[in-house]
Amino acid sequence: MSWEPPGGAAAYGASKGAVDALTQTLALEWAQHIVHVNAIARSIVVTEMTKSMFDDPARAKALTSKVPLGRLAEVEHIIGSAIFLASKASDYITGQVIHVDGGMSAGIL
Prior knowledge:
Elements: H1 10-30, E1 39-42, E2 45-46, H2 57-64, E3 73-74, H3 75-86, E4 97-100
Parallel strand pairs: 1-4, 2-3
């Protein structure tokens, strides 16, 4: 993965790494009990709480330009991944962090 940490956000970056490590460790520890442990790593999602971030057209364009798919995530994108992980279709998946980020974790062109 090619994640580019934001400057001045050491705690944020460390917490992302901690979630990855915790997901993998718990998956190993709980596999014997047939407990699947996965995580969803998302990018900025347009919600009532984040809407104001996009009021400034220049800021909205700057944020969107970092997403290879060229658009921001909607709540439905995250919900779909959560439903998949809760379904029988993911029965052989554990210890994974699913990146629902429009390609941001793949790197910036």
